[in-house]
Amino acid sequence: MPSIQPLPPSASTAPPPEAALARMQDAARAQIALALQQQLGRLPAPSTGVQGRCAPPASGAGDLACDSDALQQAVSAQAAALAGLLRAYRGADPRVTDVALAYTDGRYQLQLR
């Protein structure tokens, strides 16, 4: 009677864990960036023709700090949500050390450094 031999282990067809993690991080950044763009699209323009920048605190929680009172007033209703999204983006991308929103040339935009 022939003996039954176990099948050899099959080669894994799954991508390496690092590749899966990188794809998940990319997807997370894309979702956060989309949410930020939607929030920025809803913000009113500052009351004056000011240009400026708003950023969350470098560490810890807190709302946005803007370099212009007019800009601070324009974003005040969404400051907590925007600060959270900006911190989330900074945390999701190890290449980014500074994240902010800027109002220049009549529009808001995301700044990454």
- What is the residue-mean pLDDT, rounded to a whole number? 89
Secondary-structure-based class equals alpha+beta
Proportion in helices: 40-55%
Overall strand count: 4
Number of helical stretches of at least 4 residues: 3
Query: Which assembly state applies to the chains in this document?
Result: single chain
Give the distance, in angstroms, between the N- and C-terminal Cα atoms: 71 Å
Unreliable parts: none
Strand arrangement within the widest β-sheet reads 2-1-3-4
Largest sheet: 4 strands, antiparallel
**Portion in beta strands:** 15-25%
What characteristic shape results from the CA principal axes? rod-shaped
User: What are the secondary-structure elements, in order, as H or E?
Assistant: HEEHHEE
Radius of gyration: 22 Å
Task: Give a concise summary.
With 113 residues, this protein is of the alpha+beta class.
